[in-house]
Amino acid sequence: MYLTIKDFSNKTGLPPSKLRFYDKKGLLEPSVRLDNGYRAYSVEQIHLAKMIDSLRQADIPIQDIKLYCTVNEQEKKRILQTWKVDLDRRMEVLLAAQKYIGGINVENPQTLLLSKWEKEKHLVWQRFEVERKPHPFHAYFRSAKDHLEKHGIECSNQVYIKTDTITDEKIIGEIGFEAIKTIQKMNDESFRFEVVPPTLFAVLQECKADDAFLCFSYIQVVIRYGFQPAGTKLERYSNLSAETFDYLIPLVT
Predict the structure, then answer these.
(1) Which of 108, 137, 167, 204 is found 20 to 30 A from 131 (Cα to Cα)?
(2) Which residues of the chain register pLDDT less than 70?
(3) CATH assignment of 113-252, given 2.70.70.10, 3.30.70.600, 3.20.80.10, 3.30.1490.20?
């Protein structure tokens, strides 16, 4: 039994315009051509049509659906798992956005922003133990960058700080730069290489290193928005001589 596009539309609940769109994209082509020259669908395609439309409603890209419809059962399971991971990540981003919108207070100046690294970043870190004081790592920015350039590692001028340990007298942490070009494997233990995946950050802007209330302010802002950090917080300086920094709080990777 074969169905015209009108009958198939009635059976599936999908408008003819959508069926024609799926046909044009190669997702759901009518299975036969009738004697009168019109193309028709088979009854067996009803479930496929509904499944394709359901996947589109789940915001699955057309090319991904086309691939899913052509592979074997094992590969289908792998693709489904990939979709699930991606949807879970997108859900986390939406929840973070919801918290952000809910935390905005129009009566107060905005203190927190959202920023997303759309692509992975390749960071090169160097470890330092410094005296505990305001701007403890600032004096080492230039030497850290020079050390990279000496080894032929081209990097940006933005500086990242990651603090590991704080004692009464010392601070142990890392100074990092984003590599501009792909880095070949090196045996130099003075460098640590890290690939950071696309990440959504909450950002406190224009922070001052000598602000004694910075940590308290950060905690209050995080509580206000209901965020939970999803990794290590970063300080980002715009250049080697910058006196202020952005505080990056990872929310979703």
Answers:
(1) 204
(2) 108-111, 184-186, 210-219, 222-223, 253
(3) 3.20.80.10
